[in-house]
Amino acid sequence: MNGEETSSKHKPWNWMLFPFSSIRMDEDILYAASPGNGIYQSAGGGDWTHISGELGGNVVVNRLHAAEGKLHACTNDGLYKYEDGKWELPELAVSCYQYKTYGTCSFAATDYGLYHSCGDDWHRVACPDRKVYDFINLPQFLIVGHEHGIAMYDRFVDEWSEFSLKAEVTSLAVYKGHLLGAGAGGELIVGNRRGGFEVVTFGNRLVFTLVRHGSSVFACTDKGLYRIGLLQGQMTLFSVKTGFPVTDIDSDGEHLYMATLFEGIQQMKLSSY
What we know:
The protein has 273 residues and is an all-beta fold. Helices cover 0% and strands 57% of the residues.
């Protein structure tokens, strides 16, 4: 972002140069989480406000989820909800890595498997003996990324399939019918649509996480932000914004907001890539 665009006479909008791990947009409110520094919000492009004081200094935020005026923080201390300026006690008091909603139901990835709730109590539904980092809920499949690989539940045949990849799968996305995963070692894991997976590396680039936006899937890496694409039938990375490590992204429909390790929160117009 151009440092001359300011919301304050004293500091530019993106003055914070903390390492950020997660970012989420809800209407005109932007939320960002920084390991060791807590959670911040910026409303309407205004100044940043620290909002995680009630959570305590030892809470580490893994991911954020924001929608309909509610912010959920997946932390090492549990799943917290922030609404109307207040934090509620953890809905799940175990380490949480991902939270998503599907209609009136919610799923949470934790140290002790995948949990599910439809307005009542939380119930464990998958991988009770594994750390679950991410998941995708599709009409036919429930796909889980965990510490040993990927598990997939086929609702049509009521059957689980296990894919041991000798890698922790920390992020999942689907692109043009291919199931993609990010490995804890920076690998890109690509489903071959024949019941197997290939582990792909891109030289010295490490993939941190995969984020779907519209019809595109982005790879946040230690060298910048890339868009997943196919080149001569091979999955590859097309550069969007390079020069600094990007850990997460979100968008308000006009701008793409990037959480980075060394450059704070950056933004770019969607029309510029």
